[in-house]
DNA sequence: TAACATAGGCACGAAAAAGTACCTATAGAA
DNA sequence: TTCTATAGGTACTTTTTCGTGCCTATGTTA
């Protein structure tokens, strides 16, 4: 069956949407990173969800999975060149999201971890 | 219980994410619009999902619901001033989404309705 | 009088997404 | 020999999201 999107926004949302991808991508924008470190940084994610999401990002052509042939295993994930182009999109989303939080919750009732970091 | 986001991207995704909001917002960016017209434009949406999503967008401060006191009822939805600020975000998402489709499916295996309209 | 147009509500069921628990492989260190 | 570190896999359950079907209100029109 042939996929048909209603508009181009849906395309992006399918790629970066869901409960974990934004958080994962957030860390990937800072450079190559090992599985275990991601697991530590992405608070609350399980092994299953992490590998599942990474696999999807890889299939979508946004990241590359590099396996070092050693024991214990070492696997590193990196944004592809195309994945790099997401950075500016994420930047725009971050900016709007930050402003929105201030607009909706001016007294800090809702907070954002790393709310002040760049990107 | 107090909500805590992991990063500012999640904030935006919560507001414009899900199966229908992008499509609804897409049409709202073109100006005030009645419920019935939205239902016609947002292909496949049900009454229930439409009103549900509109209610959320209203609670999030992005749209305004204006009721005309007449029979049969007339209700019109409009972007708020803050909602207007979403336009540039949606524009960026559209642009990336359009490019991505070309990148991933250079032979047009996947299509986007209204893929050439502005915004 | 009966049907229509418009916007919406609600109970319930189906489907999709996410979470839990437990399993594998392997070289080296204790 | 047993335990550790690392990355990943799978069956199953729970939670969240979405869809279906049917109901309400009311002035106008046929």
UniProtKB/TrEMBL annotation, chains A, B:
The keyword Transcription applies. Keywords: DNA-binding, Transcription, Transcription regulation. The keyword DNA-binding applies. It comes from Paenibacillus agilis. It comes from the Bacteria. Residues 6-105 form the HTH hxlR-type domain. This is Helix-turn-helix transcriptional regulator. One of its GO terms (molecular function) is DNA binding. InterPro entries: ArsR-like_HTH (IPR011991), HTH_HxlR (IPR002577), WH-like_DNA-bd_sf (IPR036388), WH_DNA-bd_sf (IPR036390).
């Amino acid at each position: 069956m042939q996929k048909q999107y209603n508009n181009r926004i849906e395309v992006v949302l399918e790629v970066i949407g869901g409960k974990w991808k934004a958080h994962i991508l957030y860390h990937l924008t800072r450079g190559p990173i090992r599985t275990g470190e991601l697991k530590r940084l992405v608070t609350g994610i399980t092994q299953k969800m992490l590998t599942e999401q990474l696999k999807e990002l890889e299939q979508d052509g946004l990241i590359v999975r590099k396996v070092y042939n050693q024991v214990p295993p070492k696997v590193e994930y990196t944004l592809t060149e195309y994945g790099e182009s997401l950075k500016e999109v994420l930047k725009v989303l971050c900016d709007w999201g930050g402003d929105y939080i201030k607009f909706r919750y001016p007294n800090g009732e809702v907070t954002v971890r790393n709310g002040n970091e760049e990107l």
